[in-house]
Amino acid sequence: AQTVTQSQPEMSVQEAETVTLSCTYDTSENNYYLFWYKQPPSRQMILVIRQEAYKQQNATENRFSVNFQKAAKSFSLKISDSQLGDTAMYFCAFMKHGRDDKIIFGKGTRLHILP
Amino acid sequence: NAGVTQTPKFRVLKTGQSMTLLCAQDMNHEYMYWYRQDPGMGLRLIHYSVGEGTTAKGEVPDGYNVSRLKKQNFLLGLESAAPSQTSVYFCASSHQRGGLETQYFGPGTRLLVL
Question: Which end of chain B has fewer CB atoms surrounding its CB within 10 Å, N or C?
Fold first, then answer.
């Protein structure tokens, strides 16, 4: 069974700083997808970034980038020039490629951006 | 497009009562999902559907039933609610498998079982 672990329950950083959220996962699959979701106080789940395991290049989306290390099964999220609006819960998630389309989520990291 | 909508937004039930949560999507997505979110537990998949008329169990299916009679709707039922089912429930839908499409989430339904 796949598992996703986020070891940082809560983090705080000053506005404009860079912050990295950790995520590790365990799987025996070779083809899969990894995601970072943001959940602001409004509770809506918003996709931040996704990575396909067969791609070696790290995904980037504006101020958000990942450090994907397949061998180490690590998928960290870096937020550059953090903004107050980045305050939210962040979930790391895993989905294996194939008939089973279930997404497995980590427990989340609560991120506070301080003014 | 309204995207993914959920009804109701909030509900209080007494132990043993039944209720149905409705999820609707107007994006013609094949795949739909029901999750529950508990403090310290993250999101856990309850049931999902890969198309109209089909359903499958997720990680935590016990105590829930689902139906997908119409492509745009995915219903989650609680036949006899228990306090352990107090949670926030999220519905999601997606167009196709894997990383080619994302899952679009609804706003959530907060359920309190007394």
Answer: N
Can you list the domains of chain A with their CATH numbers?
Answer: 3-114 (2.60.40.10)
Residue B11 maps to a domain = yes
Contact between chains at B43 and A101 (C-beta distance less than 8 A): no
Q: What is the pLDDT of residue A43?
A: 67
Cα Rg, chain A, nearest whole Å: 14
Residue B110 falls within a domain, yes or no? no
Q: Checking phi first, is residue B53 left (phi over 0); if not, alpha (psi -120 to 50) or beta?
A: left
Q: Please give the pLDDT value at position A26.
A: 95
Residue among B41, B50, B107 whose CB faces A44 most closely: B107
Digit-coded pLDDT (tens) for B80-114: 999 999 999 999 998 866 543 467 888 899 999 99
Number of domains in chain B: 1
Contact A107 B99 (CB under 8 A): no
B59 part of a folded domain:
yes
CATH code assigned at B13: 2.60.40.10
Within 88-107 of A, beta carbons closer than 8 Å to B belong to 91, 93, 95, 97-98, 101-107
> Looking at residue B102, what is its pLDDT?
67
CA dist B71 and B17 (Å) reads 27
Q: Which of helix, strand or coil describes residue B114? A: coil
